Amino acid sequence: MKPFYLLLMALWGALAFYTGAVIAEHGINLFPWFFGDMARWAWPGQFNLDFTMMLFLSASWTAWRSGFSAAGIGLAVAAFFGGAGFLLPYLTYLAWKNGGDTAAILTGVNGKDRTT
User: Fold this and answer.
1) Looking at the domain assignment, is residue 12 inside a domain?
2) Model confidence over 11-65: pLDDT tens digits?
3) Distant-in-sequence contacts of 87-93, Cβ < 8 A, 24+ apart
4) Total domain count for the chain?
5) Residues 6+ apart with CB under 8 A from 71
6) For residue 60, what are the contacts with CB-CB under 8 A and spacing of at least 6?
7) Within a domain: residue 64?
8) Residue 116 forms part of a structural domain
């Protein structure tokens, strides 16, 4: 599992670097760009819609694996708005906490792991 942890953290580092560079160049307000592309009904908007659906799936899984607890709902909000910036360290934490047991990582309270 150690190579997987390292891959997740390398991806997270690359994302953090890229995000920092974009914020430095364009500012932190991504919503006009994001929804503007969607309003134009072109390929960048299609990608943004697809990405929003993936964020929804990530958030839904995060809430489900914690049994829709209050903490799980909070994590789901973080998953939706944080995207891979949330999911990469969260998966690393879950993998470490569950000793690399994929079933426990994926199922949470619905399986072996009884914590959020």
Assistant:
1) yes
2) 999 999 999 999 999 998 888 888 999 999 999 999 999 999 999 999 999 999 9
3) 87/58, 88/8, 88/9, 88/11, 88/12, 88/15, 89/8, 89/9, 89/12, 90/62, 91/8, 92/5, 92/8, 92/9, 92/12
4) 1
5) 116
6) 76
7) yes
8) no
